[in-house]
Amino acid sequence: MEKQVTLKIDGRSVTVPEGTLIVDAAKQLGIVIPVFCYHPKLKPAGMCRVCLVDVGRPQLDRASGAPVLNEDGTPKIVFGPKLETACTTPVSEGMVVWGATEKVMEARKEVLEFLLTSHPLDCPVCDKGGECPLQNLTMKFGPAESRFEFDEKSHNQKRVPLGELIILDRERCIHCGRCVRFQEQIVDDPVIGFYNRGRALEIRTYSDPGFDSIFSGNTTDICPVGALTTADFRFGARPWEMKDKASICTQCPVGCNITYNVRREARKDGRTVIKRVMPRQNEAVNEIWICDKGRFTYHYYESPERLTAPLIRRGDELVQTSWDEAIRYAAQQVKAAGSRLAMVTSGRLSNEDLFALKQLADVTGGKAILHGTISGGEAVSLAGMSPGSDLGTLAQGSTILVFACDLHEEAPIWWLRVKQAAERGATLIVVNPRTTRLDKFATHRLSYAYGNELDMLQTLQADTGDIGQAVKEAENLVFIFGSEGMGLSASAAVAEQLALWLERSGRRGKPSSGLIAVWQKGNEQGAWEIGYTTDERLAETISAAMGVYICAADPASEDPELKIALQRAGFMIVQDLFLTETAKLADVVLPAQAVMEREGTAVSGERRLQYYSPAVPAPAGTRPDYAIIRAIAEEAGIQLKGENTADLFEQLTDSVEVFKGITLKEVRAVREQKPALGRSHMYYGGTSYENREGLGVTLPLRAGALRSSAEHYQPQALTLESGSLLAVPITRLYDRGGTVATSGMLQQRIVRSLFSLHPADAELFQVKAGERISLRLDSREIEGEVDINIGQPQGVVLVTRSMGALLSAPVVVKLTVPQRSAVNS
Amino acid sequence: MNQLLKKFPQEIKKILAKYPPDQKRASVMPLLHLAQQDRGYISRETMAEIAEIAEVEVTEVASVVGFYTLFHTEPGGKIRIQVCTDIACALRGSREYLDGLCAELDIKPGGTTPDGLVTVEEVKCLAACDRAPMFQSQMGDELEYHEHQTVARTMDWLRSMMASLRLPESDEPLSLEPEGGDHE
Amino acid sequence: MSELWLLRHRQIPGLNQLSNYLQHGGFESWKKAVTKLTPEDLVNEVKNSGLRGRGGAGFPTGAKWSFLPNTIWPHYVVANADESEPGTFKDREILEFNPYQFLEGLMLASYAVRAHTAYVYLRGELWHIAHKLDERIAELTSSGYLGDNLFGKDYSLRIHTHLGAGAYICGEETALLESMEGRLGQPRLRPPFPAVSGLFGYPTVINNVETLTNLPLIIDKGAAYFRAQGTEKSPGTKIFSLSGRVKKPGNYELPLGTTFRELIYQHGEGIINDAQIKAIMPAGASSSLIPATEVALDTPMDYESVGALGCALGSASVIILDETVNASTVVSDTIHFFKHESCGKCTPCREGTFWMARVIDRIEAGKAKEEDIDLLASIASQMQNKCLCALGEFSTVSVISAIKNYRADFAARLEK
Ligand SMILES: Cc1cc2nc3c(=O)[nH]c(=O)nc-3n(C[C@H](O)[C@H](O)[C@H](O)COP(=O)(O)O)c2cc1C
Ligand code: SF4
Ligand code: FES
Asked: Rounded to two decimals, what is the model's pTM?
């Protein structure tokens, strides 16, 4: 237990852990000491000087060290000649702080007056107006009017794009450095900095592209004035005109808590639209941060490409039809297929949708298949994170193993959480064939050859040195694995190995210990918990089935083999937001709804069950997935349980063991977040939102014995002849996946190069960065731009997933350079 | 390829050796000095080269360039004349001297003559307060203090320098004739 | 002229050549320290000498050394050769003409705190001096005064130079450390103090060039000898950089406690054109304008006595103003200096110096009203005690004292 210290602030007593800063101690008492440069998530800087307070300390007798007493027996308190900054001064026993005396109020007013001399005071047109700490604190503590001559104000640039995502207003910047410190201290991307000095100090970026950080949007939340804004929200709306709708980001398995700010828009026929995405504080999940993918991709929901009417195949064409006809047709097929129906879905659906579809599968006897690029969810169900878990508590004494993934690209907020755990002293073991951005924080960094994942795990488990020790002695033990360079069966085998290792280490079922899979979608874990499994032989399954029913998945654009299988399928029903490659092959296409138009629950990779509510009305002509599933079932004469989301949730929690007994109320319950930073504490934490809509509930582990497929899984031996390379799939954040590509915002950030080679291979094949190369695998040729990367192994070409290369597991390929071979031949 | 590293492998090695291996960032300022002496100013490419050597972001190098007044992001004149006008010098007429010199060259403080030969800058204390008015001249990596100056003395010196300087691309002796116009 | 110590080169020509320096007892103290004394001996001797830092604050040097924890290693020593205070030009003379004595001092300080690496942080303008120092350091290394296993003992020391690039604030010790680490020269929060977490996060001593240059004498001749000069609380000699409206400006090494009068009239030979002296600025641009009254002129120049006049002795860069000088112009100079040098980290200094500059420009341009003088004084006092480091505080001193003592000078500039 930390040492506690008792002090008095404005006459009130408070006891806090030693080392607490005065400003935070005051906050606990509800006493507002204004701050600008201070932010509880950043190291104190003491720059803005607005937090000055009067600090007294008990006088100690020099010889005895005992407090000197006044005549009345109270300890004698000595106040320094200067006020002190509450944001940098730690509390001490017996301290007496005055935060609202005349002297303090005067100083505060004076500092504010200084700040305002260079501030444009354009509040009436500022985006931050109404949620601006400077504005609020000035009203509360500032001078009535400035003595600064208005004509002497220097003017500065009002619109400086720091790249295409974040815009800076140099006139409004108060030089608190929160953004610069966030980029350096929190996310290790010091790509914005101060330039010049004195009054000429200004924020600049020299990175290419500008402000090259996947966390850049967070700076707009913590900026205490309207200096940093996102390009899509800038001048978009005034804060008080907007409503907030709690939601969950489903772009990756982290499940960040977010709030959609919405407003009815005259220009959009009075429709309610999303104006921006803000983090919603959940200290156990994302604190008050989100990544830019989560912040900027939401625009896909307003894409003109959205499907708004069912389509049905007439010969070679898909033509619009009525819902009735579409449902009738689909139902006929479903009924006819019976148990020979294959249902394929993905982690994009809510638990309720998944449960509805699962029921249909159970009744018809058809197959319910989860389509994705990574497997192993069963092991995670059995040995994953359990109730009471919080990655934020991992510190010295804990061990984290990160295996076969690139967290920075695949689950940015987990990257951040793991980095911070390592900074708090946790042992971090990073194991991957190539270098990643986590390596810098790793205690141990190991690599293996692609394809040797299981051997590597064997070696690790046999280790008797530091690594073995770190695992053995870990207070909390977390294994995070991905599917870098692996197909479904390999990732399943890895998951099972890791789960067994956890169990042998005695950490299975221990809170804040467990196995975490880096899924590609937001609710893949939910699908596994509900009973879906992946299918390694999906193409065969599809070919063998009489028909397929595909919800929210696009296998045709991910795997050429699947595409061929789908083309041959008997019939095909597809539910989606867009006319995907898969939908184009369908017999009937049913327009579904996006997550922000929906209510539902999802299970994050940490097995946290979370709730999201609809933010905007769905476009006319669309329906929620579960409703479409139900309608088809009903038409086919099958009665599914659960009429609406709430009802489905209840059915789910009644019938699936790990969900048993959980109520929506619990999922939506909140506890006070520490430090309290959300909306009503804006001056302190920025504009992120207080969590009023639920922190989620971590599912209990599924009971049962762990499986070991390691014995029955044999990695395929891939032999490389000279002139051939091993092509290996990896995941990048800004790929061409559906939502990124259609969002419009991140276009410039999408990775350009499909392939990546080691410099030695580049030399061997005589290709340069930026050149186009072509890979031949089986009967296919794939072509794309190449990048050179010294951090990857030789003999390997990395292929980014979701960029059209259609590679699901490592294969041997031949490399050619198209133009040159054209010249040669 | 990193041109700076290619041109000065030995110097850079020496610079890096001054600091602990995990503190490469400390080499940013010495590298900037090295590059500026060679190239006359710090371009964006130079920043990128230094960022690579010191293993920091380009923005971090740029921040340093922006903070310190001795780093220039634009090429200045072949001869830089830096006049101190701080209080101690001002009390001995350095401000009047600077104004006179600028008038003679028809430029403003901070400006460069149109032929690109002479830049006159106002700088802060050069620690020669007892010998004001004074300036420091900088030509490539040569640096000289000139104390007890008058405008006439400085102009004489400048003309003598000019005589010895020739533009690389032409054999024309350098002129010191202002070409008119208002230059910053 | 009595014997000079810090400016010994004035009496011994060619002291900046190693052979000459060695001939005159050079590096004897160094050899003695490494071969015969323990680091504790050194610390104690310097404590006993009462040597106080010559960089401005006058902090006892021995005490400063003893703050370094012996639990965290390595330790570093950094010589502060940033000398940028307008009116200060003493360190430069030492570095150019008496460099070995300075280096010997730096070496002694390093040994005293068991540092194996020391740096000299020089202001960027002095790069020719830095190059020369590099050569001298190489020379010392090849002659066995620097390097490994010195004098056959288990002690090694290396010295490197590091150049600033035009920023007065880098004289402030924590800004200096930031600058050394390749960052903007903005001061750090304290605590932690450099003695605990300094360069690269390790315990660090930062001493001024002149401070260090005193050390060979103290080790050679002992604390008592050192104490024989100067005053009880401010022992030793000090270099006074005399500039402004005097006939003979320059550096003068005199015992601490010498009066202003002696410095100005005896050594400086009085005021140009024998004009009437008006004010003294004892600490460069960072000082008050002290009216040159008889009492002031007779004040001994030591840390306490000058402090009693309401001004710090600082680095003893004494600038003299005479009756021809208008205080408003002086203040305009100092304000513009500090505005130019404000690092921008903290609000009062960044905004205050800017605001003051706007107001003084108006005054100087004859466009101000009476209230503007009060406004100027009020901005300055509003900045006081709020800044993150001393630079911001320094910028207010001349303003407040000038308006208090020479308001008429400002009034003369007002809109007619
Ligand atoms: C704004 C500012 C500028 C300073 N400039 C210098 C300087 O140029 N040289 C110097 O030695 N000390 C300077 N100092 C003092 C240093 O911070 C530090 O106190 C000194 O180097 C310590 O050395 P000493 O104990 O030997 O005096 C400055 C302090 C401040 C606040
Ligand atoms: S007082 Fe503030 S702005 Fe001024 S130099 Fe110090 S830290 Fe920088
Ligand atoms: S100085 Fe304390 S909040 Fe800025």
From this structure: 0.95
